[in-house]
Design goal:
The chain has 135 residues and is α+β, with helices and mostly antiparallel strands. It contains three helices and six strands, in the order βββαβααββ. A six-stranded mixed sheet has the order 1-2-3-6-4-5, with helices on one face.
Length: 135
């Protein structure tokens, strides 16, 4: 088996995609996470709550694979409004640290026109490394 689908317990089914794919070498690819909860309900309140939920979703996927946030090596952020992001820099930092602490992996941010989910303001994807269990 070369890969294993990672789907946190209690989450609504992912239809047509996987939230995470753990490869035999320990690389964990995490699909883009938006600001909705385990039931696919968008978190209200705008950019910061959505960002924090997306990061929380990533954390849940990493933990479901047997890792923790310090195993994350890369984040790619897709935002629909550069102005929204820049206007809330202090809150961005606080929300980020609530979920990831002081772990800062390599990051990229792209400003895009829109996301597939109409209410989504941010989508974040990640790559982590979970050391394979011996034996």
């Amino acid at each position: 088996m070369n890969s294993k689908i990672i789907h946190p317990e209690g989450w609504a089914p992912a239809l047509g995609y996987a939230n995470g794919m753990l490869m035999a070498d320990g690389t964990l690819h995490i699909g883009g996470q938006i600001g909705w909860d385990k039931d696919k309900v968008m978190r209200p309140g705008g950019f910061i709550p959505q960002m924090e939920q997306a990061l929380s979703n990533i954390r849940a996927i990493v933990e479901a694979a047997g890792g923790n946030v310090s195993d994350i090596g890369r984040l790619t952020w897709y935002v629909t409004s550069k102005k929204e992001y820049l206007a809330h820099q202090e809150q961005v930092g606080k929300a980020y640290r609530r979920v990831f602490g002081r772990h800062f992996p390599a990051m990229s941010m792209l400003v895009i026109h829109e996301l597939v989910e109409d209410d989504a303001m941010i989508e974040i994807e990640a790559t982590a490394y979970i050391a394979p269990k011996e034996g």
